[in-house]
UniProtKB/TrEMBL annotation:
Residue ranges constituting the EAL domain according to the UniProt record: 24-275
Included range, full protein: 439 to 720 of 720
Superkingdom per UniProt: Bacteria
Signal peptide: none
Protein name as annotated: Bifunctional diguanylate cyclase/phosphodiesterase
Organism: Rhodovulum visakhapatnamense
Length: 282
């Protein structure tokens, strides 16, 4: 009896997998189609501010947005993974980079960070293509930080380390994104010349509280500083967490409290009221 139940469950699971697979293929087709025409992809920007002075904008993070055929905005969590397994992340990545470069060229005082996928970094010509593209747009590489999320794919590739070193030599800086989840390892920090470490938003989203979570953040901050790496806390939603992160010594803050991802114009002068009040107090 138990066996039959197990089998039934297996069959149901299989159906589900088939449905997911079908829907993934649909998204892939639609992505491919959207990439051939203009206007489907755009970028929202989220402010990153100084933890000791919330009115001081450090840079903005560029976040990809997709308007599909029905006009709905699809979130990156639904399409980046599919773009990666289908290699569509390569043309998509160039599209996003071009938009960011145009925006930076129009706004000389601003710096931005751009997410780069491990798949993009696995191409031996990536660093030189990116450098050429950015220079051609008139933007100085020093104004762009590339955010890399550690994955299994990243970990054991000499090509990736080589590409990152070339990018740093060209003037770009590099951030390790989503630290504290997945595959993040300290060994990796030694291999790649990161300027910035971004503590994953899961640490801050529910509130930092005291105890273990806070102790972990403190440890990450002191480890980073010992290595000459600056720290951004992501996902900061509460004033008390902002204050605590500054006390801990975290350098920069990003999160809905400071500002949600939005158009560049709004992001540039749109630091939230609660943050400005915080700035007055400090
Ligand atoms: P990420 O690089 O870690 O970007 C930060 C994500 O956290 C964004 O989600 C942002 O909206 C969200 N976030 C920021 N502050 C808060 C907060 O206070 N609370 C909560 N609940 N969330 C917050 P988004 O825009 O949905 O992007 C998700 C992920 O998709 C990004 O995570 C990044 O890994 C990937 N992604 C986005 N754009 C690109 C891109 O152009 N290229 C690549 N390769 N990946 C991208
Ligand atoms: Mg990021
Ligand atoms: Mg990322
Ligand atoms: Mg992140």
């Amino acid at each position: 009896h138990a066996k039959t139940q197990g089998l039934q469950r297996l069959v149901i699971f299989d159906d589900e997998m088939e449905r997911t697979d079908h829907s993934n293929r649909k998204i892939e087709r639609s992505l491919r189609e959207s990439l051939t025409t203009d206007g489907h992809f755009f970028v929202e920007y989220q402010p990153i501010v100084s933890a000791s002075d919330p009115s001081k904008l450090i840079r903005v993070e560029a976040l990809a947005r997709w308007r599909d055929d029905s006009g709905d905005i699809v979130s990156p969590s639904e399409f980046i993974g599919i773009a990666e397994v289908s290699n569509l992340i390569v043309p998509l990545g160039w599209k996003i980079l071009d938009i960011v470069c145009l925006d930076l060229a129009r706004n000389p005082g601003i710096s931005a960070s751009v997410n780069v996928s491990a798949i993009q970094l696995m191409s031996p010509s990536f660093a030189s293509s990116l450098t050429t593209r950015v220079l051609r747009s008139g933007v100085e590489p020093e104004r762009i930080e590339l955010e890399i999320t550690e994955t299994v794919a990243l970990q054991d590739t000499e090509v990736v380390v080589d590409q990152v070193r070339r990018l740093v030599a060209a003037g770009f800086s590099v951030a390790l994104d989503d630290f504290g989840t997945g595959y993040s390892s300290v060994g990796y920090i030694r291999k790649i010349p990161f300027s910035t470490l971004k503590i994953d938003k899961s640490f801050a989203i529910g509130g930092i509280g005291g105890g273990e979570n806070e102790a972990l953040i403190e440890g990450i901050v002191s480890l980073s500083h010992a290595l000459g790496v600056e720290v951004v806390a992501e996902g900061v939603e509460r004033v008390e967490d902002f204050i605590k992160l500054n006390q801990i010594g975290c350098d920069y803050i990003q999160g809905f409290l400071v500002g949600r991802p939005t158009s560049l114009e709004v992001a540039l002068d749109g630091i939230s009221k609660s943050c400005l009040e915080l700035a007055m107090q400090s």
